[in-house]
């Protein structure tokens, strides 16, 4: 962006006269709707087992280039009005007009525009960007703006609580009201005195913040069970110097261990079961707020003082490395707590005179003052990729200008759940512009996600986005005034702007594209400093990176937020409800940019279609493999690759980043500690981890050491039983099942004893070579011999379900729609074919009809079915009935109880969810990670922020 362009732009408005809006994306005299082709579609969602229609709206209107998935999500999530009534919205035009019309009129009424004509240009430009999926507002805007409902526009909230019972009870009330509206909130409990301090009134010992978390957790669980379609998203933060920090760190791991113990003891720990209420703290994300002092003590191996909340004096001392190890251990066991780096957060705080930043929203991307909120919007980066594979900085700049203007207007008319939140938000006007599709953009340009080139471009784009946002904020300050809290924080705000500028100057581009974007950002930061010093700023905060779950699908993005591509193949939904598996369209574009010829591109794409990865793809050079690394699969990005990408963009964000660093199951506690330590060293504001199949801690043991001085015991008489193989009869019943997993076809033949028990399994995969055929035969023989020696089928199912490797994805089995591997499918199918309902229920494996019944009735088994169950079936798992012995030993050992040995497996047995992500409670499709939340690609439902 040249200085000349900047001068021309600033001449378009003057203080107090409103802004003149330049027409960039639209054509004067032509409405954006008239430039696209519209078509009518029928949106019908059915239960994929029973065929029952769960949603149906015919004749909805969308542009022909919108995918079926995007139109389905918008129709089911964002169209307002009762179905079947004239008030029901039935066109994307109606939805966009409802929202844009409110923004236009409010801006005109409040002096944002120089004239009514400028307001019209603003509405046209905003409509064009939304219509062509260049960006999207966060979900509350689509839900509420322009309707008769309260005009709630914010998705992120931060609350506060003080050390008084009145404040604690008010916390419960405020959080409940936010949950009721479908949003999430976070807060810091560190002001509440510890359980090691005395009460002023009575002299008794205080309860401590962890005890009060129980009440808030119960409230969140109650509101969730009262009809919400997604869990109540919340964040709880505690400072590392709080005397109750160790209790806080171990809270969730201890409770999840309780779930396992109670379940194994026979209590009803199923979802909605009568005993599940005894489990606490499961409705929140927990984070420890660590200081530089603490982290340095960890590095130095020193001690660290825990301070009383009432006096500030040190009342306890801990070994810093030991406490840090406990944090990593707890995260290794159950993924909580995450870390928030307090000194880094507040070093980039634009409003320190108004108070410190103590907490975040549930997904950790919004960090600001207590009792505040933030409305979000995200850009689709792929829309700014030119045909010549360069990044369109000019159009990107114009889009950011327009979006920031719209977001600020929304605060003018917005409603808020509490008066303190309303006051703080209107006084500081925090915004959260971000982006999606970064992973797809980098791949399309032939840049690896975990590469210097990929990080350089991501950092430059983020810098340009935030610089333009703050420059527009300074221009708005000249028209409608700076935010109310700016005067007392002017020096600090300008200091942070200079920190952003310095970080941009320190960027070292690797290619001409990086340099072009970095230089454009540099010009913008110069104008930010100049205009800010003269006008001040309209907004205390401008940018962050949200998970962009539902709105990412609305924009037809391949990747969400800052995430890399999830996999190289995806399922495309077709008109009529069917779907097909295709290779991501960014792959051919990336291969072209890497210099491959069309016939080579075709061969690589065919390889990916068959294998799901690029390993050994014909003609593909190994040095280019990194371009096609993904979040999961054979070439999954290493954990530190995610951390380094976060670190590259963090210096250019007002807020933080919603992202979880995924680690393999084999990761150690030290690996998690390294991620947490590296996050601090690289200047992140917050970080969270998730280890696949998170295991619970070391099991408790009642065994005692034998006294070495005790007398030598008498020789022990041992009676040893050895299992004896029970062969199948020569003529036995069997079944053959054909299956398809992500397009890979095969056959499974199983044989059973006369009493119906499974005794043998043989597997045959289509298009297999001699080596794979031999391996599958050997595997089949091993499993079959194990079954004949009495190894329970439940044990095999426990071990082999949820194994993740390619091919993985959709199946042709109506009971098992998604499989994480062929092994996962086979043993789920065997469980459905050969295990009783009770045995399957313990493993969390249900048929589609059983899951549908649970959604309708809250029970997988009807009362009539339970009453009609034979008593022998009900008592099948009782010990004593399963051990059959003759003179040669047991024919079959006691069936091993299906006890979960990981937290994730335990949750699966309770809820029927997959290990690494839950099943969507709306349509039954396996969800996928999106930042710190999960999102359903089938219907757009999310587990938290959207």
Automatic annotation (TrEMBL):
<dbReference type="InterPro" id="IPR000788">
    <property type="entry name" value="RNR_lg_C"/>
</dbReference>
<comment type="function">
    <text>Catalyzes the reduction of ribonucleotides to deoxyribonucleotides. May function to provide a pool of deoxyribonucleotide precursors for DNA repair during oxygen limitation and/or for immediate growth after restoration of oxygen.</text>
</comment>
<feature type="domain" description="Ribonucleotide reductase large subunit C-terminal">
    <location>
        <begin position="154"/>
        <end position="690"/>
    </location>
</feature>
<protein>
    <recommendedName>
        <fullName>Vitamin B12-dependent ribonucleotide reductase</fullName>
        <ecNumber>1.17.4.1</ecNumber>
    </recommendedName>
</protein>
<keyword id="KW-0547">Nucleotide-binding</keyword>
<feature type="domain" description="TSCPD">
    <location>
        <begin position="727"/>
        <end position="833"/>
    </location>
</feature>
<comment type="similarity">
    <text>Belongs to the ribonucleoside diphosphate reductase class-2 family.</text>
</comment>
<feature type="domain" description="Ribonucleotide reductase class II vitamin B12-dependent N-terminal">
    <location>
        <begin position="43"/>
        <end position="133"/>
    </location>
</feature>
<dbReference type="Pfam" id="PF08471">
    <property type="entry name" value="Ribonuc_red_2_N"/>
</dbReference>
<dbReference type="InterPro" id="IPR013678">
    <property type="entry name" value="RNR_2_N"/>
</dbReference>
<dbReference type="InterPro" id="IPR050862">
    <property type="entry name" value="RdRp_reductase_class-2"/>
</dbReference>
<keyword id="KW-1015">Disulfide bond</keyword>
<dbReference type="InterPro" id="IPR024434">
    <property type="entry name" value="TSCPD_dom"/>
</dbReference>
<dbReference type="InterPro" id="IPR013344">
    <property type="entry name" value="RNR_NrdJ/NrdZ"/>
</dbReference>
<dbReference type="GO" id="GO:0004748">
    <property type="term" value="F:ribonucleoside-diphosphate reductase activity, thioredoxin disulfide as acceptor"/>
</dbReference>
<dbReference type="Pfam" id="PF12637">
    <property type="entry name" value="TSCPD"/>
</dbReference>
<keyword id="KW-0560">Oxidoreductase</keyword>
<dbReference type="Pfam" id="PF02867">
    <property type="entry name" value="Ribonuc_red_lgC"/>
</dbReference>
<keyword id="KW-0846">Cobalamin</keyword>
<keyword id="KW-0237">DNA synthesis</keyword>
<keyword id="KW-0170">Cobalt</keyword>
